[in-house]
Amino acid sequence: MPPAAIAARRWRVRAPSVLPGFGLTLGFTLTYLTLIVFVPLSGLAWHSATLGWENFWSLALAPRTVQALRISFGTALIAAIVNAIFGTLVAWVLVRYRFPGRRLLDAAVDLPFALPTAVAGIALAALYAPNGWIGQPLADLGLTVAYTPVGIVVALVFVGLPFVVRTVQPVLQDLDREVEEAAATLGASRARTLRSVILPALAPALLTGFALAFARGVGEYGSVIFIAGNIPFVSEIAPLLIVIRLEEFNTAAATAIGAVMLMLSFGLLLLINLIQGWSRRRFGHG
Amino acid sequence: MDSAPRHPPSPIGEPPLTRALLIGTALAFLGLFLLLPLVAVFIEAFRLGPGAWIAAITEPDALAALRLTLLVAAIAVPLNVVFGVAAAWAIAKFEFPGKAVLITLIDLPFSVSPVISGLVYVLLFGGGGVLGPWLKAQGIEILFAVPGIVLATLFVTLPFVARELIPLMQDQGASDEEAALSLGASGWHTFRTVTLPNIRWGLLYGVLLCNARAMGEFGAVSVVSGHIRGLTNTVPLHVEILYNEYNFPAAFAVASLLAVLALVTLVLKTALEARLGSGTTPSPSVREHATAWISRSTTSAKPSTVMPPP
Q1: Tell me, what's the ipTM?
Q2: Domain assignment present for B34
Q3: Cβ of A170 and B269 within 8 Å?
Q4: How far apart, in whole angstroms, are the C-alpha atoms of residue B127 and residue B136?
Q5: A99 touching B, CB under 8 A?
Q6: Membrane-spanning regions, if any (chain B) (predicted)?
Q7: Cβ of B228: how many Cβ atoms within 10 Å?
Q8: What whole-number distance in Å separates Cα of residue B238 and Cα of residue B227?
């Protein structure tokens, strides 16, 4: 047994166990996590602190930055709403119905997890460009998607979809159908059952999936920059503005935008955890 | 998971027309948003014929990018496997205070924008950074060089293996290991012959996802790489450069390699899920594990509260 484990036992930091390796594995985990994640992240905090309060906020609240943040959060919100609706529909169809190609479709839902974002980005840009397969017919109708905020939403729908499907799907699978039968027996219409029985049971998972898709969309970069057109104040997302500031060697501005984004994302993460804690107490699942 | 509906057609089903409409909408949505982009990659890649495709992927800069991507994945994936196994062992087999916080911290890289994951390393190792000037004096290059790319990749792929193994090992408990140890096996022997066979499919699943992300990462690597052709360009960055030069056929040809990687990943993942779903252990399927990380961030130490109910 490594000395650290003996020490750990003496300090009673953990419940007794006959298994070896606690000190070694926990020590390695903490060291690795510190080197790869904490030190770099605290570097961001340290750099923000050295900017000074006023300087930091003047950089963070510069009009172009605020607009980029607004675009990032706005488009991510819309995409997450679209995904909440269609992701639930997809999960429902995959769980409840049997049709040819269902398993293939089920596997395909994870494509956005597996496909590198840059590949998705150029594919979407080519499809929705004014001369693309989808862009052309839309252009005939007078609609433009590529190089507008709508294009950003399209890219974020792509990357966010699996989050909603994969959180709603298991809950839908575990849903006891006898409750639905009971509702039907008691005279409830199918729509009423859906509204009063099924949706409340799905709500926490749906909210979690929505929040995850939203959080992913806020930080997304690779799939967005090709289709967005990146016009300042119109279709320029916050992560891209960080890259632009770094290329201008304006580290201070990049730091300020990064810190604000990080604070907002962590706020979101906290909210997700609160929702899950609440739903676990209320429904017994997350 | 894929069992047929437990009940025959009953008042709780939808009318055939509604059903067809719902399936149709889902198919149309997935076709439009998922399959069409994938198909577009391959069609654009072969627009100029197989000769141009081969030329684009065997061009020296493309080959250099391919080599770099393979190198980065070959370093980052094993390191994160060691981390994932160590973290899962400590967290799943022992009780200690602060465990829930540790689990949340391991998931942290997933809630950070890839660009910020790159930015933090620029701040650390850049000219105006904390370590930058000192490293420069020593002649060590991290930023705009391979070490920076490896570090950024390590950051973004850190949670994958740990996230698969923690719920799986919590679910399995420590009784198998305790039995082996009581029969006189050494700790290392127990891990190799008892724990490893129990977790192998979950481990493979984590490796698969970790590798896909390591080879496909764009945002974080883009920030730290400096885009030096033939030197610090990974495959996704090479795709970007070609695309921005309006060399679309070559961009899509190189992108099609990454799309094949994604397809192989999906096929293996589906096969592994079937394996884990019908495994001898009565553990929940991988898909539930894959989503369980969401629900375990605030969890207490008790494994039973972590997993969704069976």
Answers
A1: 0.88
A2: no
A3: no
A4: 8
A5: yes
A6: 20-43, 64-92, 112-135, 142-162, 246-268
A7: 11
A8: 8
